[in-house]
Amino acid sequence: MLVYFIKAYQKKNIPTYFIHAFFARCLIVSTWELTFHFLGDAFYHSIKIWPWGLDRLPKKLSHSIWDGGLFMVGTWLCIKFLPIPHFTKFNTRELLIIEGWGIFQQLLVEYLFNGRVWLYEELSLNPIIIPPLPGSATTVGYTFIPQAVW
Questions:
Q1: What is the DSSP code string of the chain?
Q2: 146: exposed, middle or buried (C-beta count within 10 Å: 0-12, 13-18, 19+)?
Q3: What is the mean pLDDT of residues 113-118?
Q4: 137 pLDDT band (50/70/90 cuts)?
Q5: Which of 86, 92, 101, 137 has CA 20 to 30 A from 119's CA?
Q6: Can you tell me the distance from the alpha carbon of 63 to that of 57, in angstroms, rounded to the nearest whole number?
Q7: What is the average pLDDT across 21-45?
Q8: Can you give the residue ranges of every domain in the chain?
């Protein structure tokens, strides 16, 4: 994904502000990804371990890049469905599309991967706020901190 954005920028297929938005989002996401990393296994741990020692920090950095890409889908939705100009001043409709996309993709990612790829531990400061969903393949609930961060 990172290579795609760099190549698209070099070929002038996407504007500069897209690149800035992508890297800004990657940086923002890395703040909580790295926080979760440093909190350790008592807070969060992988169910699927990456090989060759790539499970910890490299995995967190890759999650930051993928989250940056998911954010860019939200910006694409704004461009697709809203009139020009885009992202030049505050626009409630842009905010609603980005927020709506963010909530949808967050719930989808958590539904697909929580309890299968990673697991957030239930703690006093990280209680389960959404119990396991009926018909779900896992019996893992959704905890507070990851939902609040997203």
A1: -HHHHHHHHHTTSS-HHHHHHHHHHHHHHHHHHHHHHHH-TTTEEESSPPSTT-TTHHHHHHHHHHHHHHHHHHHHHHHHHSPSP-SSS--HHHHHHHHHHHHHHHHHHHHHHBTTTEEEPPBTTB-EEEPPPTT-S--PPEEHHHHHH-
A2: buried
A3: 79
A4: low
A5: 101
A6: 10
A7: 83
A8: 2-7+19-149
> Is the bond leading into 85 cis (omega within 30 degrees of zero)?
yes
Question: What six digits make up the tokens of 136?
Answer: 């779900």
Model confidence, pTM: 0.76
pLDDT greater than 90 at residue 14: no
The residues that bridge with 118 in the sheet, in sequence order, are 46, 114
Amino acid letter, 83: P
Nearest residue to 70 via CA among 112, 41, 38, 37: 112
Relative to beta strand 128-130, strand 118-120 is unpaired
38: exposed, middle or buried (Cβ count in 10 Å: 0-12, 13-18, 19+): exposed
40-78, pLDDT tens digit by residue? 778 877 777 777 766 677 777 888 888 888 888 998 899
